[in-house]
Amino acid sequence: MKKVQLTETVLRDAQQSLMATRLPYADYADILADMDKAGYYSIECWGGATFDSCLRYLNEDPWERLRNLRKNLPNTRLQMLLRGQNLLGYKHYHDDVVEKFIELSIKNGIDVIRIFDALNDFRNIATALDSVNKYRNQRTVASGCISYTQSPVHTVEKYIEMCKELKSMGFDTICLKDMAGTMSPYEAEHLIKGIKDAIGDMTLILHTHCTTGMAYMTLTKAIESGIDVIDCATSCFSGGTSQPATESMYYALKQYGIETGLDEDIINKVNDFFKPVKQKYIDNGQINPKSLATDAQALVYKVPGGMLSNMIANLTDMHAMDKFDEALAEIPKVRADMGYPPLVTPLSQMVGNQAVTNVLIGERYKNISKEIKNYIKGEYGIAPAPIDPALMEKVLGADGSPVDCREEDQKRTGEEFVAAREALGDLCRSEEDIMSYICYPDQTLKFLKDRKAQEENEAVYTIEAM
Ligand code: CO
What's the gap in Å between 401 CA and the centre of ligand 1? Predict the structure, then answer.
């Protein structure tokens, strides 16, 4: 019987998309024992924005959350999303930092590490893969992930080449990550058939979002074309900017005679559990009804919905909404000048801001942001297509040439670890504390100070109670 498995995203991408990753562990601890029996391919539960959000907003230790997930989901693959050399942040880290992060992630309970680079420059995910291979156990899965976008250089042939490269690098599975939800059913069909022909029986995964309204159609075509795993969210946390619904896909697949391995009663029970959780965040305003709706604008303008709303907010702040159409038309031009980067964080913000600047000043690239300069210098990696030569010259000078980001990244100086130990002093209890500090110094320092203060209070309270 044909088989398609489902990854459940409610604990990571679904709550990240619908409520800015503010779901505390305590809100779902009581359903984990059931989720462990649901039969998911994996549960995506860590990485992405969860790490930052734990420290910044939820006063939770992200590593402790992971250990608790591991303890309560002993039979299910735990999955995380990793931004390659950026780990969970926005800058490139040295290789020794990347290696230590992955060692600790596996040690604390992660099984599936989905690794991507915003530019699909696979040199930026190679160290992460090597590290997974160094510390892997029998359950570990290294998933090579492609950031999906549309442009004149992003052809089916190019994606097939990328998949062949991921396979030859030694990844266990390949994931197509359609972060903006712009992959159409037609594109899914051609892409997945072509990729499956090229990579044979290697597991292929599709990650998409309902944002533009196409995801269910796209998944249907993907299933007909041979996809192995799809990402879904329990139905009350599905739709809008989140993933398609787990139970709906289960029922549809069942009628096709496709086995999912899911337990129908349990996936319904999981959804019943999350209904009041969702209602709580609708009532307190953390789930914005806008994120639950379909917004097809990304298909018309070829820019993700989040980027449009950012631009509207910026132009409104500057009392320049009359420039909206002009700025919108400038976005694809800036993106073309930059060699068609996928419009994913942080590139979506960088391209959007530069487009607005170009229009407001009335002269293109009179002011160039620091981030765009660094991009053009090569610090993010190699652009999918050549960068406009005139823009290159403007940033690098007449005889300047871009840097190779690997030169800096491959340094293993250990300096970050030393600096973190010094900064944390007696607040530091573990390698995990050090890694949290390297990733998010200010948030971690505050979190660890609070932890210490809380323990001292508790100690005083215990003595007084005796
Ligand atoms: Co996503």
Answer: 35
The rounded Å distance from CA 205 to ligand 1 centre is 13
On whether the CB atoms of residues 227 and 197 are closer than 8 A, the answer is no
Q: Tokens in use for 441?
A: 């110094």
Distance CA 125, CA 262 (A): 32
| Cβ within 8 Å of residue 295, ≥6 positions away | 211, 212, 305
Mean pLDDT for the chain overall:
95
Domains and CATH numbers, the chain: 5-283 (3.20.20.70), 289-407 (1.10.472.90), 413-465 (no CATH)
Distance 14 CA to ligand 1 centre (A): 8
Tokens, residue 260: 């999912």
- The rounded Å distance from CA 323 to ligand 1 centre is 31
Of the listed ranges 116-130, 339-353, 418-432, the least confidently predicted one is 339-353
- Encode pLDDT of 81-140 as tens digits: 999 999 998 889 999 999 999 999 999 999 999 999 999 999 999 999 999 999 999 999
Give yes or no for a contact between 254 and 32, defined as CB atoms under 8 angstroms apart: no
pLDDT per residue over 182-229, tens digit each? 999 999 999 999 999 999 999 999 999 999 999 999 999 999 999 999
**CA nearest neighbour of 404 among 84, 99, 121:** 121
* Ligand 1 geometric centre to CA of 298 (Å): 15
